[in-house]
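Milestone 3.1: sequence recovery, worked example.
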């Protein structure tokens, strides 16, 4: 687990397998804008940890020695996704009926979890866009969460990933020129990828106005 940065979405992982829990925590920490909290391995401790740590999202296994993850879905009042080897239709249906925002069958490609987390981040941003929401904004939030993407396509080109990593590594605002230098690409190419990533919700675009009045585009991890 890495230290949380202001604005990061906090993720609590519930899995009785210490190795798997640590692996999933690493997957979470690799996604800009997310921080994994210390995992919980005992189902009986989950309500207490949720109350103490106030996570934004719980990644929950179904098979737990001290209880069922399906029962925890009813007990904890927090967004949750299920990560489990359980693939029976009844189990999946129950998890979704009880509020799971996603269901990933173990073992899964880490890129798939990354896609789900980024979709969740976009969903949260839309829902936090104003004091009230109209129907269009609610539909937009649900589309961001559930539209889904093909992992092979959505993982993007190596350059796109390098641009995303460069912004995340900066841990603050970064300019187009700075990204171009770090990645080793032209300014125009960096601008194109940054604009695409910002439009997709993976990065935040901030405009800074200088003395001449022209805005400078600065980007931070989404």
């Amino acid at each position: 687990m890495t230290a949380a940065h202001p604005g990061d979405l906090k993720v609590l992982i519930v899995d009785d397998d210490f190795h798997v829990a640590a692996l999933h925590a690493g997957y979470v920490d690799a996604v800009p804008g997310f921080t994994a909290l210390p995992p919980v391995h005992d189902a009986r401790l989950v309500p207490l940890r949720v109350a103490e740590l106030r996570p934004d999202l719980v990644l929950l296994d179904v098979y737990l020695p001290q209880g069922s993850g399906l029962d925890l879905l009813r007990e904890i009042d927090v967004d949750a996704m299920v990560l489990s080897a359980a693939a029976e239709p009844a189990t999946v249906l129950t998890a979704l009926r009880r509020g799971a925002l996603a269901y990933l069958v173990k073992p899964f490609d880490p890129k798939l979890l990354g896609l789900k987390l980024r979709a969740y981040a976009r969903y949260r941003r839309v829902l936090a866009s104003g004091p009230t929401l109209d129907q269009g904004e609610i539909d937009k939030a649900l589309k961001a969460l559930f539209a889904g993407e093909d992992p092979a396509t959505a993982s993007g080109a190596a350059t796109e990933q390098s641009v995303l990593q460069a912004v995340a590594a900066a841990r603050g605002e970064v300019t187009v020129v700075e990204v171009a230098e770090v990645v080793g690409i032209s300014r125009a190419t960096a601008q194109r990828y940054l604009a695409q990533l910002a439009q997709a919700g993976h990065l935040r675009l901030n405009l800074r106005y200088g003395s001449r009045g022209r805005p400078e585009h600065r980007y931070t991890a989404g």
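The chain has two domains: 9-121, 156-221. The CA atoms of residues 100 and 136 lie 23 Å apart.
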